[in-house]
């Protein structure tokens, strides 16, 4: 065989090898493309699923805003929905390709400015070398990038050590020393800041003492719940004069809100709990005062005992226990939010367009009231009579015409009956611009109790309930006046032992 034939055979073999290699490469590429298509299809399906799930949760979240829920359920629902949506959005963001447009423009997070008064722990991250890694020349600083992130350390305890040096005069043997200031617990180990922390965590953060005991233990401090309970008892007794002073100021107001909510109280004799009540009162004006009165029952006599000789306008719901008050010189005010709620419930139950129309009509009253909010009482009275009175007259005629047509035991019938039964108290909003249109302020103040009682489980005794009411009154009033409760309570517990009775008013949590 000549050399030409041999070369031809070699070329053919080489070509076949090259073709085989190309086939393998093509097959590998096809497999890669198939895998990529599968991955893209999977991602598209997952993105579509997550997008629809986020949209569904947002619809549920929006729809639930108008539903009546137990406040504790509302807190848990809002937290759970926010966490679920955030988790899904995070997963969705990780799946999206950079080039793939989002279904809608993503929400741009608003970066909050961190408070300047917070201490800063600064770490400077210098390059490993001050010389250029490319040419070896010295580096010159041309600027810096600074990022700030909020951080926290677990609860940090420290010991407040007060030293009182003693000096003596060698001539006359006189001993001089700064006197030891009295404290809430003279021989106790708790400083005012710690006492305030325990009280705030129990009555604002709703942490029972057994949970606080575990939290303190994680920080390396052993404090039994018995000790914590003794501190709460001492603080409650010490702060009672402030509560008494707040009650005096509250009853100097001419307009009050009132409401009540049940709490459980331990009944050792029966081996179970019994129902007690917290009556809540709030004034109107620039210095809001919130007071809780712990009572063994819901009887109206407890409200009468608390108010005593007070005579003014009282905003309440339709509870019969208050009725006796309105025969002794107290003016009854009724809540339009309660009336509106009855129609909202009727609409939800049956989809009634008539109930929906009632909600719209009451909404018009609130729209007018919102425009009058910043006026003084005299002008507000005049403007209410000018703008609200025609709306109220029209609503009254509409309800009178509707009442005989509504089915006897329907939700709509009950809503109409409730509103007409309370009509004389509802329209008193026209008589005085200082009188509120609803009882929402006291309902907002009493709402945390519903959350707290699920954590407290029960009050241990009548005196424990009264002590809790006193502390919650002070804390609620501090919050209503824009004061930070822990800072205020720490300051008060520091100054209280040296404050004379006549100066107690200077310690009140009023703005």
From TrEMBL:
All residue ranges annotated as the Transposase IS66 C-terminal domain in the record: 473-509
Pfam family of the protein (one): LZ_Tnp_IS66
Residues of the Transposase IS66 zinc-finger binding domain: 130-173
Domain of life: Bacteria
Domain annotation Transposase IS66 central: ranges: 187-466
The Transposase TnpC homeodomain domain, residue ranges: 50-122
NCBIfam families, per database record: transpos_IS66
Name under which the protein is recorded: Transposase
Organism in which the protein naturally occurs: Rhodanobacter denitrificans
């Amino acid at each position: 065989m000549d050399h030409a034939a041999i070369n031809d055979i070699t070329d053919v073999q080489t070509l076949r090898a090259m073709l085989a290699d190309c086939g393998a490469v093509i097959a590998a590429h096809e497999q890669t493309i198939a895998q990529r298509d599968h991955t893209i299809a999977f991602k598209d399906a997952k993105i579509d699923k997550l997008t629809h799930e986020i949209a569904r949760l947002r619809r549920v979240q929006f729809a639930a805003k108008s539903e009546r829920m137990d406040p504790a359920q509302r807190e848990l629902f809002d937290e759970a929905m926010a966490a679920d949506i955030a988790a899904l959005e995070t997963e969705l963001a990780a799946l999206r390709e950079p080039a793939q447009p989002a279904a809608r423009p993503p929400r741009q997070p608003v970066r909050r400015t961190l408070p300047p008064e917070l201490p800063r722990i600064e770490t400077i991250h210098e390059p490993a070398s001050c010389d250029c890694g490319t040419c070896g020349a010295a580096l010159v600083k041309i600027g810096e990038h600074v990022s700030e992130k909020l951080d926290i350390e677990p609860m940090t305890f420290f010991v407040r050590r007060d030293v009182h040096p003693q000096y003596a005069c060698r001539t006359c043997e006189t001993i001089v020393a700064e006197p030891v200031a009295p404290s809430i617990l003279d021989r106790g180990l708790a400083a005012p800041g710690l006492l305030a922390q325990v009280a705030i965590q129990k009555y604002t953060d709703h942490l029972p003492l057994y949970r606080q005991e575990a939290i303190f233990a994680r920080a390396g401090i052993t404090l039994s719940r018995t000790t914590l309970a003794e501190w709460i008892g001492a603080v409650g007794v010490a702060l009672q004069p402030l509560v008494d002073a707040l009650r005096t100021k509250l009853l100097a107001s001419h307009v009050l809100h009132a409401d009540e909510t049940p709490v459980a109280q331990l009944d050792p004799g029966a081996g179970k709990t019994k129902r007690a009540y917290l009556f809540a009162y709030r004034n109107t004006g620039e210095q809001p005062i919130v007071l809780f009165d712990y009572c063994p029952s819901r009887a109206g006599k407890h409200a009468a005992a608390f108010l005593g000789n007070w005579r003014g306008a009282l905003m309440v719901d339709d509870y019969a226990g208050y009725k006796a008050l309105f025969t002794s010189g107290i003016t009854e005010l009724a809540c339009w939010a309660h009336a509106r709620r009855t129609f909202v419930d009727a609409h939800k139950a049956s989809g009634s367009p008539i109930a929906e129309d009632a909600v719209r009509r009451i909404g018009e009253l609130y729209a007018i009231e919102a425009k009058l909010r910043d006026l003084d009482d005299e002008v507000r009275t005049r403007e209410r009579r000018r703008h609200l009175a025609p709306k109220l007259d029209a609503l009254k005629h509409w309800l009178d015409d509707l009442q005989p047509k509504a089915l006897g035991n329907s939700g709509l019938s009950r809503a109409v009956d409730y509103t007409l039964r309370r009509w004389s108290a509802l329209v008193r909003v026209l008589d005085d611009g200082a009188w509120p249109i609803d009882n929402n302020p006291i309902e907002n103040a009493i709402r945390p109790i519903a959350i707290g009682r699920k954590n407290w489980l029960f009050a241990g005794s009548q005196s424990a309930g009264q002590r809790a009411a006193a502390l919650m009154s002070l804390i609620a009033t501090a919050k209503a006046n824009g004061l930070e409760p822990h800072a205020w309570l720490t300051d008060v517990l520091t100054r209280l032992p040296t404050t004379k009775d006549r100066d107690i008013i200077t310690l009140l949590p009023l703005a």
